[in-house]
């Protein structure tokens, strides 16, 4: 018992020393408590990052931009979401749910000069940070909306439709449970044009994985399941593309993707349609959606 | 008689907070779960409880019988049941007519949750009236009752958000709450009839 306590104390001291060490290296340039969370923007090792929670798990970074090379997509999940362009190479109307630092929004705006982008973010403070520190703001082609994602989608039903929907509203800490249900995904499906594509960034590596998978499958059928340390689901209406078609699109995008810091060597092998989840997991619905509880177990 | 009154007040406290948490779920599908939606929901519950306290006090001055306390709980069950049944058309209608999520959530919460919550609010003051037999101990009775009913609320909050939503669907939980209310309400009514 005493030994265990001694080990715990030693670990705690080591952790706090580590935290002090990293705090010394990094420079906080913005610190704000919004209605929803703590937002910190810092610069460290050539990166400018936004984090939503500065306690213990300081490694949960929402957005990072390379200073001097803002087009470079730092995180795997942003690269994996960009791979949605392998499945829908020339989307005209794009909806991004969850703005964050706006990395994906600006990447799509740059790659697709003809595209119109609606970006939805619930937290006004995040919208301001994206503008001030990551240079993402309204222009003729990018429209940023302060709204709950689900409320926005429901309002858009029958009025707007999209070739590509990017769902980036979840993180490792917190899932908006009303945006991970069969009903919500059905609403998303209804704002997608024929042949439209959904790219969802889900962090799941927990018990939630099975539930999440069967729920997406119930609404979209078979989908591309890209897994690294993150998970990105790419679903398409009216049937998925063949491997050859994806490879052809990937080749066409190779030069453009190089400016983002990624390419087909990394992304193509990730395209899998093989279910690796328990097929009998309970479906998430508006009536049953304890995603955060399932994520913790 | 006193134990039944305490059980009833504690249960009513449990019911209200469980109902409020689930109310957030109900509103989220149309209005999202932004902080203004929660603000609207909590404001409606607080206003309904406030008016319920006032009404419960008035009724207790009119007639003080445990059977009436039981009847209040039955009324709470019936109105909650009605609220579950009408929730979909009501939400659809409000969504179609009110664009601003703040006022949409406020209107929806008012139409769906106001009446059952108001009736829940009547329980505590009415229960105090039933318990007080000795004027200089009245504060003590009130304190004990608030302790139990607020403790019930805490239990309802924890139990619902930690476990019930993990095991059951929202409507299943609501039907369960309603069923338990009917049983406890009947307990408060039936023995008195027998005695009479």
What is the radius of gyration of chain A computed over CA atoms, rounded to a whole number of angstroms?
Answer: 20 Å
What spatial form of chain B do the alpha-carbon principal axes imply?
A: elongated
CATH class membership of chain A: Alpha Beta
Low-confidence stretches of chain B: none
Order of helices and strands of chain A: HEEEEHEHEHEHEHEHEEHHH
First and last CA, distance of chain A: 26 Å
Nearest-angstrom radius of gyration of chain B?
17 Å
SS-derived structural category of chain A: alpha/beta
> Please, how many domains of chain B?
1
Would you identify the CATH H-level superfamily of chain A?
A: Vaccinia Virus protein VP39
Question: β content of chain B, as a range?
Answer: under 5%
* CATH fold assignment of chain B: Growth Hormone, Chain: A
Could you report the average pLDDT of chain B, rounded to the nearest whole number? 95
DSSP strand count of chain A? 11
| SS field, number of helical segments of chain B | 7
CATH architecture of chain B: Up-down Bundle
Strand order of the largest sheet of chain A: 7-6-5-8-9-11-10
Annotation, overall tally of beta strands of chain B:
0
| CATH architecture field of chain A | 3-Layer(aba) Sandwich
* CATH fold naming of chain A: Rossmann fold
Brief summary of the model shown:
Chain A is of the alpha/beta class.
Q: What can you tell me about this protein's structure?
A:
The complex is a heterodimer of chains A (297) and B (196). Chain A is an alpha/beta fold. Chain A has a single domain (76-296), classed as Vaccinia Virus protein VP39 (Rossmann fold, 3-Layer(aba) Sandwich). Chain A is built from ten helices and eleven strands. In chain A, helix 3 (103-111) links the parallel strand 5 (93-97) and strand 6. Chain A is globular, with a radius of gyration of 20 Å. Chain B has 196 residues and is an all-alpha fold. In chain B, helix 1 runs antiparallel to helix 4. The mean pLDDT of chain B is 95. Chain B has helices at residues 2-31, 35-62, 66-97, 101-121, 123-131, 138-167, 170-195. The relative contact order of chain B is 0.22. Chain B has a single domain, classed as Growth Hormone, Chain: A, CATH 1.20.1250. Classes of the chains: A alpha/beta (297), B mainly alpha (196).
